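Data card: per-record layout.
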Amino acid sequence: MLKTVISARGNWHAHVDLFINAVIAGLLIGGLYAAITVGLSIAFGMLDVVNIAHPAFVLLGSFLAFWFNNEFGLDPIVTGLMLSPVFFGLGIFIHRIYYTSFEKRSKETLRGLAFFFGLLFVTEVGLIMAFGVDYRVVRSGYLQKTYSVAGIGFPLRLVVPFVVSLIMIAVLQILLNGTFFGRAIKAVSQDASALRMVGANPVKIKELGFAIAVATTSIAGALLILVAPVQPASARDFIGRVFAICVLGGMSSLPGTIVASIILGVAESLTATFYGPSWSPAVAFGFLLLVLAWRPAGLMGH
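The structure for this 302-residue chain is written out next.
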C-alpha cells in the first residue's frame, strides 16, 4: 500500500514537471513563431498583400545564416542583422514587380496570389540547387547550454531567439506607433486618399512597409535555424501556421501576434508532450477555429 502511494506521488510529480517544462518550451517557441509571423502581420494585416511566399524568405534567411556560420563561423543572429538591409532591398524589388504587374491593374487578388506562390516554389528550388535537400544546422557556443531554475530547464537555443524576437517586435511597434511613417503604413490600406491629402505617397508607403516586412525574415530565419535544423521544404510547414497566428492575433496587431504565437506554441508543446507530435497541429488549429468562432476579429482585432 505504502509503495503504491509513493509510486502515485512520484508519477504525479513527474507529470507536473512535464507540464511545466512543456509550457515553458511552448512559451519560448511562441517567441520564435512571433518573429516568423510579424512580417506577415505587416504585409497581410496592414498592407493587404497576401505574401504567401513569406515563409520561403524566412528559409532563405536561415540558409544564408547557415552559410555564413559554416564558412566564417559568424553567429546566425549577427548574420540576420547584417543581411536585413539586403532583404529590405529585396522587398522593394518584389513589391515593385507586384505593384506594376498586378496591383496597379487591379488584378492583385488571384494573379497576385499566384505570383507569390511562384516565388515560394522558385525560392525553394533555388535553395535545393544551392544547398541540397539535407537538413542544415549551425554551431554556436551557447546552443548546447541549458540553465535550470527550480528544476525547470531554460535551453539557450530557445531563450536567445525568444529575447531577440521580443526586441525586434518592440522596435517595430515603436516605429509603427511613434512615427508618422509608421502610422502611414497602418493607414495606407484603409484610406489612401487621406494619405495623399497630407502629402504622402501611398504607393511608396506601401512599398517601404512591404520591404520592412521582408527585412524581418532575415532575422527570423536566423532565429529559426538556431532552434531547429532546416531544409528547403521546411517553408511549407509554416504557411498555415503563420497565417493562423496572423488571423488569431487580429491581423495587424503586433502585440496580438505575440499573444497568438505563444498560445499556439504552448498548445503545440503540451499536445506533443502528452499525446505525441502528430496531434499537435490538429489541436492547435482546432483551438484557432474555436477562438475565431467566439471572436472572428481575432484576439486583438477591431
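Known properties of this structure: The chain has a mean pLDDT of 88. The longest strand covers residues 146-149.

See the next section for split statistics.
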